[in-house]
């Protein structure tokens, strides 16, 4: 069943049920009130009759005349003794006599529906008879007028229900069209995307601000993201193939050179070939390891968070690079003994990447700056080199993206370091971003979760 049909059917059923329940409730309420009103009317008539009977001297002829003056056009009046026997009956139709007699010494009024669906009101009132005996004065009246009114009410409610349901069905059809149209457009677009392999977006003109409009906007954002990721994947495969092709070509060339010539192992050419093969193999191995890291999902990185002092980790990184490069790395901490809750080895790997870049693209001092805001510890790696152009900052974490080599002609690499750094940081639900002023400085900032034993800033 189509969604439009379901909405139409559901809307129609809801309206039919609501209208039906409403009309049935109105009918039953009116019927109950009408019965009570008729019963009260007949009871008042019975009370008036009893008073009239009690005010006249006892004489059977006079009594008969008084009682007959109160007989309903469709009813019966009778007197019932304590043995529940009727000793005086006055009726316009002998069929009323079939109604069972009932003695009562209290004033009552009730309604009766026969098997033929005829409705009666029976009102009873006790009287003291001439010999002191208590008898029951009973008045029975057939409710012809009420039946006619109830039949008319049923007809009116049925017509009103039809009049109310028809617009509701039409409204359900229009509502289904309004709701289903954008969903149908979305479905058709998705089928087209699957069939054609493109990333078509929905038209956002005249988009409403309701959930359907939000669905359109969300779909377009998803298409845009998928298209961007698809392009990045194509670029990634292309760049990876290109980067792997170069060392493989060098290795193949030197290997063929060694095979073609009978070269003495002690000759410079032999050593040069082996060194070239070794260097290119290491380069390719390093590139492959980086690609494998980028290819892993966050769950496959096996993040193992622990609480550790960030200053101690920075000292290890500082000692490692100062010995290897003989460059100055300064550590600045706003507060002492800062701890973080993160994967220590992965944070260390990220710091290696950031410090290595800082040393490549600057000649002066590199700084570590540590501070904290609320539950986040920020570690900043700052260099005072040539900086990054504002237009390039947005792409700095993209795979294989390399800034103009003019910044540092000695800088080497394939542009995967910062992509790996971002992946390792985001796998820990942490943050990394860059701020740079061209010709002045560049600062990479890592935001890590503070350790439990740290005091929060107020």
What do you see in this structure?
The protein has 458 residues and is of the alpha+beta class. 52% of the residues lie in helices and 18% in strands. The protein folds into three domains: 3-150, Beta-Lactamase (2-Layer Sandwich), CATH 3.30.450.20; 211-295, Orthogonal Bundle (Helix Hairpins), CATH 1.10.287; 299-449, 2-Layer Sandwich (Heat Shock Protein 90). It has nine helices and twelve strands. Strand 3 and strand 4 (119-128) form a beta hairpin. The protein is rod-shaped, with a radius of gyration of 49 Å. Mean pLDDT is 78; it is low at 405-411 and 454-458.
Short description:
The chain crosses the membrane at residues 7-30, 152-180. The chain contains nine helices and twelve strands.
Q: What's the average pLDDT?
A: 78
Which CATH top level class of the largest domain fits? Alpha Beta
- CATH homologous superfamily grouping of the largest domain: Histidine kinase-like ATPase, C-terminal domain
Secondary-structure class: alpha+beta
Strand tally: 12
Q: What multimeric state do the chains show?
A: single chain
Treating each run of at least 4 consecutive H or I residues as one helix, how many helices? Answer: 9
How large is the radius of gyration?
49 Å
Major sheet summary line: 5 strands, antiparallel
Outline: rod-shaped
**Biggest sheet, strands in spatial order?**
2-1-5-4-3
Query: Which blocks of ≥5 consecutive residues have pLDDT under 50?
Result: 405-411, 454-458
How big a fraction of the residues is strand? 15-25%
Straight-line distance between termini: 59 Å
The helicity comes to 40-55%
- The CATH topology of the largest domain is Heat Shock Protein 90
> What order do the helices and strands follow?
HHEEEEEHHHEHEEHEEHHEE
Subcellular location: Cell membrane
Pfam families: ArlS_N, HAMP, HATPase_c, HisKA
Domain Histidine kinase: 239-452
Membrane topology: Multi-pass membrane protein
